[in-house]
Amino acid sequence: MTRVLVTGGAGFLGSHVTRLLAAHPDVELVVSGDLRASAVPEVVSEPFDVTDAGSLAPVLQKHRIDTVVHLAAIVNPGRDVALEYRVDVDGSANVLAACVEAGVRRLVVSSSGAAYGYHGDNPEWITEDEPLRGNDAFPYSRHKRLVEEMLADARTAHPELEQVIFRIGTILGPTVHNQITALWDGDRLLRIAGSDSPFVFVWVDDVAGAMVRAATGGPAGVYNVAGDGRMTVPELAARLGKGMLTIPAWALSAGLRVGRLLHLTEHGPEKVPFLRWRPVLANDRLKRDFGYTPALSTYEAFEEYLRTHPGVARR
């Protein structure tokens, strides 16, 4: 019987994961490690902060935890880079060290397709064999790359700690609203000239399902997590019944540079690659090797998002 602790267990993704784990027949105990109390009655809440280096190992030992699912992260990056680094990078280092100290058997980590980076020479479909080149100018992407480099070193230094790393595409869910979904709220969708900027979407229940499989079985390894297929900006605009505002990359960079100087926007020209060269995740290894197929495709996840967010689409 598995005894699992989920960091960030009271958060958006964490609450889905802990609820599924609590109902799983092979799970004896689920502990939510979060500053907030879990809303799932069957889950034990342990308040702690991943940036506190000494707080986790005693909790792991107290509950005889054998599996840790590490989800604690900044939900909407881009506001406080120093805090994001402490939570995402230092916090992951603290979790990793605590797992080694407490003799945890398996560590499951939510990474991101952003670890591959936003580059003009990205392949049309990115597999797990592609190098991690997270952009230094985009802190979230850089932090995910740094965490994965840390985890790779740990696989050599501590082979007794199994790792399952999920590089996740854009997560959609009934309560999701972030810098990506905000792109769909206006009258027109922004498009960079010469780029269709494809998205891969995955519904939150599918991400949680993959996490639960990793916590209760399934092979160790690194896997992209995304629904089948992709949707380009023109396809998104057509489905939403909205037009597009097409801007050359150089013009958008200049406009963002001026806008930030005038304090009209917090975004700068470093955001242009994020909009222009999105990593498109191939999920073949997830389905073939890990044995998990998301229930919803990219298109179906987007349809479910529209169903749960009435008013976003015009038709």
From TrEMBL:
Start and end residues of each NAD-dependent epimerase/dehydratase domain: 4-226
UniProt name for this protein: NAD-dependent epimerase/dehydratase family protein
SUPFAM superfamilies per the UniProt record, alphabetical: NAD(P)-binding Rossmann-fold domains (SSF51735)
Pfam name, any one: Epimerase
Organism: Microbacterium bovistercoris
